[in-house]
Amino acid sequence: MKKSILKILATTLFAIQLFTVNATASDEKKIIKSHTIDVSQIVMTIQYGDGFFTLTRRLFKALDKNPENVTWEDVFLLKTIYEEQKGNDKLKVGDKFIIVKNEFI
Asked: What's the whole-model pTM score?
């Protein structure tokens, strides 16, 4: 009788231990999360043959917007940003300037 009680007790303790291990393993899986990184600025480089309209279309592509929806206000905004950073409106091949993403969204 003592042996059967000990067997039942040992089996119960083993089952409880087994279930708690499975519960903690499932909790660990829930801890893993994915993070997205939001780009807040874009560095634009002037290429040969670029104009402000072409730069604006390329910027729209980088922002996953339709480049066919470029308006003259967008082009003027890009030109203003370039003038503020470079001091003039002459595009030079290889020049880089920074666009803050929030200004075009």
From this structure: 0.60
